Amino acid sequence: MPRDYYNVLGVDEDASEDEIKKAYRKKAMEYHPDRNPDDPEAEKKFKEASEAYDVLSDPEQRQRYDQFGHAGLGQDGGGGGGARGRGRGFHDVEDIFDAFSDIFGGARGAGRGRGQSGRSDRGRGQPGSDLRVSLPLTLREIAEGTEKNLKLQKYLECEDCDGTGAEGGMGGQNFSMCPKCDGTGEIRQVSRSVFGQMVNVQPCPRCEGDGRTIENLCDTCGGEGRVQGEESISINVPPGVMEGNYLTLAEAGNAGLRGGPAGDLRIEIQEEPHEHFERDGLDLYYDLHLSFPEAALGTEVDVPTLQGQARLEVDPGVRAGKILRMRSRGLPDLEGSGQGDQMIRVHVWTPQELTTEERELLNQLREHENFQPHPSEEESEKSFFRRVSDVFS
After folding, report:
1. Class of 278-392 in CATH
2. What is the pLDDT of residues 166-219, one digit of tens each?
3. What's the pTM value of the predicted model, to 2 decimals?
4. Which among 149, 190, 226, 324 is placed 20 to 30 Å from 40, CA to CA?
């Protein structure tokens, strides 16, 4: 069961922001991994203090915590050191909850910002940037789901230094506490004015907010802890996605500087045009062109669907503009709650040129009452013979 955040920092529930900050600084200095090497208990307490500070230093999260405890924080709360709460899944709305900076110079700090990765002994390197790529999909792939392989050009963790930026990596002895900031990663400047005391906090310029300095830089990455390279990943796309959906893979973006957490990878769905179908939500639209005899007498035609050719029966007397429905021939719902239909838009083809014999036959038919237009509320388009007359006028 998670500990009470106020007890972790040793402050009262009505403690001010400054009191919380001072309490956290005291705990952080006491249990910092650099000052307690090979001490798992100290590292655990350091992470607890960072987690508590992430929540209590933010007014909104603190209010939710005061009202509902740990349950009020949900996925964007302090669990896991202020993790983003974004696993992998498709979304329609941006759902990003960035972690709040810790006391050490605004870096993502011991709470690891984007989620615990067991790398607190690497310092507080700067986080990597997010990476966005487009994933083109055909309608068939969207209907059935698919597995895609992507090749990404990105920053990768330097293998020669384990991402630390120091020669020899984690096993080397090239780290020392920054003498300028005493390992805090920040420089504080206090000034006084008529309005009171002002404290300006900036990342330490010598260690760049890391709290440690490197004696000998890695030759491969030049001290950055990362190199440019290519990475291949496999993506499972569920059925029913659509243009604008995206899949987020936490910490699969660009590697951070000197052991900092990697950015996220955002894969945006791009729907490729189809030669036959137009998509409207879960439904697909297909244009069916019939001759006048077929429309008047009725017919059976084979129409393409995403599942293959299907037989469609067209009733006699179908009009241009009529929408026929083929149930469950559309796209599946992403949540698995149903499937769309395939809608057939009927077009009746009118010949542009007629032979003498054809014209005589049509003139004979035009005299029959059954071939005269009978407009109604449901039928506003011109009759076939009116459109034929327009061709010759």
Report:
1. mainly beta
2. 888 766 667 788 888 888 888 888 877 666 777 888 888 888 777 878 888 999
3. 0.57
4. 226
